[in-house]
Amino acid sequence: NAGVTQTPKFRILKIGQSMTLQCTQDMNHNYMYWYRQDPGMGLKLIYYSVGAGITDKGEVPNGYNVSRSTTEDFPLRLELAAPSQTSVYFCASSMMGEGYEQYFGPGTRLTVT
Amino acid sequence: KNQVEQSPQSLIILEGKNCTLQCNYTVSPFSNLRWYKQDTGRGPVSLTIMTFSENTKSNGRYTATLDADTKQSSLHITASQLSDSASYICVVRNMGAQKLVFGQGTRLTINP
Fold it and tell me: CB-CB: which of B41, B43, B98 is closest to A48?
């Protein structure tokens, strides 16, 4: 099993550009999550999904969109990149919700200039 | 407000020495607490989970403690190795919530 994979690993965007961060898991987990990690700060939840076709906002959803058409994939869309979105983005998945371990991908380092 | 505070922010010790990392939380109602290890450039990996009824749990050289009354947890690392250099993140879950509250992490550096 590859676990949780994310692409790309690094990306530099200009202000106003758009991009999609890809996330795929091969563990047949129902729950998937997107977090951002800013330097010296804890991970902040952007969006999460409890199954295909179901998504919900987390703590910091503004400026982002998600979709979940399959169990495996959970892409994160940035429509109009802003410098405040410079961060490291982590995708995670878990079998169920409460009490279950989350498995994280390797992260995508995004810089918006 | 649900918060998780970790201390120290960073710690440098010599290889072979022991260390203890602290986690204080105000998350309520409490469900469980996990310690994650995050190597540089990688995603976090779970080390151990503590539930309300557990006081101590070991995973090799890592020992986690939980005091649910004072809402404190610690992670003790014994006989540190160079590979222990990483950030250690304390994560607390609300009862019934799908969302977690993350601490900011402690950056541990092991020097030879």
Answer: B98
* Whole-number pLDDT of residue A41: 85
Token duo for residue A94: 């878990």
φ, ψ dihedrals at B82, nearest 5°: -55, -35
Q: Which residues of chain B carry a pLDDT beneath 50? A: none
CA distance B22 to A104: 23
Of A97, A101, A104, the CB nearest to B43: A104
- Mutate: best of B98, B104, B107, partner A, most A CBs <10 A: B98
Nearest by CB to B43, which of A50, A97, A105?
Answer: A105
The phi and psi torsions of B16 (rounded to 5 degrees) equal 95, -20
Question: Worst-scoring range by mean pLDDT, A41-45, A48-52, A60-64, B107-111?
Answer: A41-45
Q: What is the mean pLDDT of residues A58-76?
A: 96
Mean pLDDT in residue range A83-108: 90
CB of B101 within 8 Å of any CB in chain A? yes
B-chain CB neighbours of A102 within 8 Å are 46, 100
Over the stretch B77-101, which tens digit does the pLDDT of each residue have? 999 999 999 999 999 988 866 668 8
Q: Would you give the DSSP letter of residue A110?
A: E
Q: What span, in angstroms and rounded, lies between the C-alpha atoms of A23 and A108?
A: 10
Give the residue from A4, A5, A37, A89 with the most B CB atoms within 10 Å of its CB, the best one to mutate.
A37
